[in-house]
Amino acid sequence: EAEVAQSPRYKITEKSQAVAFWCDPISGHATLYWYRQILGQGPELLVQFQDESVVDDSQLPKDRFSAERLKGVDSTLKIQPAELGDSAMYLCASSLVLGLNTEAFFGQGTRLTVV
Amino acid sequence: GENVEQHPSTLSVQEGDSAVIKCTYSDSASNYFPWYKQELGKRPQLIIDIRSNVGEKKDQRIAVTLNKTAKHFSLHITETQPEDSAVYFCAASPVTDSWGKLQFGAGTQVVVTP
Q1: For B85-95, how does the pLDDT look when each residue is reduced to its tens digit (9 = 90+)?
Q2: Is A41 in contact with B32 (Cβ distance < 8 A)?
């Protein structure tokens, strides 16, 4: 069964350092989402791509976060510099046409700890 | 944008009893409402979804109801079992011809005690 791949699974970084996460969606999925999930809370949408274009980044802290999906396939989310409050699970998800053809499938996530 | 509120935040039930989780949404353009189950340390996984042209949908012990007028939808789990213990998230999304956008509720921790 096809899955959304994310790496690394775990990342520990010092504050003020740069960190990057990678996501490879299910083949053929045009929509890719990056969510941040703080322990005990629901996933919060950071950025959404349709193919290589950003369709929503209203909740992305653009002073320190950036995301790209250059060829409309895999994607990278970067934080620079990392802050203590960035400690969370970063989830990537992908879908065909959400709700019409398919659901959103989530990756295993990257657990980030900023020390 | 869409705002989804979910209640209760925690729910403890005895095995065999029913569990009900309720969500409200704000964007009248939302037309797709999935429910995800997240077990500890695992990814969220879809358990059931409903579209706005349907009022109720069932899948074995799980059912979802939707009231578009009141902008709320609910998850019902009957004959609960210990393996139903998890965090459940509701979500709402306006869906166009080519893509949709998922906004999640804060989650409900369900604990089923034997």
Answers
A1: 999 999 999 88
A2: no
